[in-house]
Amino acid sequence: MLAAESGVIWVPRVHWGLFIATYLFLGGVSGGSYVTSVSAQLIRGRASSDVEWQSRDETSRWGSLLSVVAIGVGTGALLYHLGAPLRALTFAWNFTNYGSWLVIGTWLIVIFSTLATLDLVWNFFGSEKQGRTSGSFFVRRILGWIAIGGEPVVLNLLDRFSDITKPPQKLHTAIRVFGAFLGMGVIVYTSMLLSDLWTCPLWNRTYLPPLFLMSGISTGLAATVAMPAIFDGLTETVHQYSLADDALIVVELGILLAFYNFLQGRTGCMASQATVDSLNSVFSMPFWVGVVGLGLLTPLAMSLVMTGASALFDLDERSHTWHQIFRAGYVLKYSLVLVGGFFLRYVIIFAAVKLPLTVA
Amino acid sequence: MGEQWGFYFDPNSCMGCNACAIACKNRHGTEAGHVDWRRVETVSTGEFPDYQETNVSLSCMHCEDPPCVDVCPTNAIEKRESDGIVTIDRDECIGCRYCGWACPYGAPQYGEEGLMQKCNLCLDKGPGAGADAESKNTQDDPLEPACVDECVGEALHAGPIGELMDLASDAAARKFEQNPTSVIVEPQTGEEGQAAANVETPIPYQG
């Protein structure tokens, strides 16, 4: 409840709940996973060893897979929220208001999802992928169980489809780079959808897009790089991506605190003040603990400790014990980044306060 | 462009009895709970002994440039050329609730089925009815909005803006000129005679 203030009418709000928060979060993870996937492929050639090449190759494939899974689940959450989900499936001819960010975003997601799905087929299937067994190829193993008369029909079909449709390597890379930009577009759209409205000071056009972009890439990177860490163990690539994530986290933290400071400084805006009040009362746990503490400061501190310990104490990371400790540390760090990313969307949706009507 | 229709509200005559809100629910058969096409808010101003309460009856303001129309993905919400009434075509609505966030007045409502419904100035009866209704300007016997019909203190009136202006004081008319909605609100006359109450549209926030 907002404090009863003299001479104002607080307008009922929160038309969106957990499903939309989840959708915004997964949209960010999806775009970020794809960006991470493409980046891993682009730096693959400069790997210092076969192990690192393999780690980057796996990272690239995991990102490709996760981007499709995340946008799929996210779209499911979005459709579940709708009053008439079946009508939304006819968007191609029913979504006629091209000035609405909801429509712009729908098309962005559709084009991105189509490209990412096609790319997933090229990355996991085809005659050259047969017999591959590294962690991400569990997809092939699972599909291989679907057999008719001993023949893995689905796998064979996808392999054949990939062989027929896969473009030459250079063109494939170019398509993926284009996809990475689309992925960033999807992340930014989730912030434009909110900040296109002027009714909530928390949905600010200046701060929300860069905040969501940083958070989206950071959470996508975290989800993607956690996978090779879980399946293959610790590599230099897992560590390097963690440092890149740290940079994103620092920028995100800076934007978030500047945004909070901005809202706090708007003393003449009752809705801004009410938003700040709610961030410090009802939403203090998800915001200060969930987003700032668990999602930003703790991962940063963990990375600092692990990086510092490696550098200062000359720890033999090849020893089994240290390897496992650091591996678990990075997986936990990446998990916390995801938790923080979710809480950020949760707070942005639930703590939004509408400008009140004034009676003067 | 037909003549714009709207509401006239005089807080000096409103006793906050909620008859308007109940009459609206009754006529349109909206479900119990929080589906309120019209609601009454009581606003307190000042401190004892200069304390005052103002009752404000609120519904869709049938804005000149409705933000709900701008964001609706399917163009289900329309600002009608014929009479200026903002309607929702529930056959086109996907229930995304984007309009709910866009509206500064909290007018869009969502029932169990999740589709938007709101005041249509009693173009017709029933939730969402009115999207295809004939213009108020050409209807033989336009329905008097239920809220106006049942208002005990005659605080609410509806009709073409030109006619409503005849009811308005100079102050209300001046205020309406700067008002982006189709609702004329009378300033409140306090006991001292000068305190003015007006529902102000929030100023678009420049981040």
Automatic annotation (TrEMBL), chain A:
Belongs to the NrfD family. The keyword Cell membrane applies. It comes from the Archaea. This is Polysulfide reductase NrfD. Keywords: Cell membrane, Membrane, Transmembrane, Transmembrane helix. It comes from Halodesulfurarchaeum formicicum. GO terms for cellular component: plasma membrane. It is found in: Cell membrane. Pfam families: NrfD (PF03916). It is a multi-pass membrane protein. Its main location: membrane. The chain crosses the membrane at residues 20-43, 64-82, 102-125, 174-195, 207-231, 287-313, 334-353. InterPro entries: Electron_transfer_protein, NrfD-like.
TrEMBL record, chain B:
Residues 182-207 are annotated as: Disordered. Its EC number is 1.17.1.9. Signal peptide: none annotated. Coiled coil: none annotated. PROSITE patterns: 4FE4S_FER_1, 4FE4S_FER_2. Keywords: 4Fe-4S, Electron transport, Iron, Iron-sulfur, Metal-binding, Oxidoreductase, Repeat, Transport. It comes from the Archaea. Pfam families: Fer4 (PF00037), Fer4_11 (PF13247). This is 4Fe-4S ferredoxin iron-sulfur binding domain-containing protein. It comes from Halodesulfurarchaeum formicicum. The lineage of its organism: Archaea, Methanobacteriati, Methanobacteriota, Stenosarchaea group, Halobacteria.
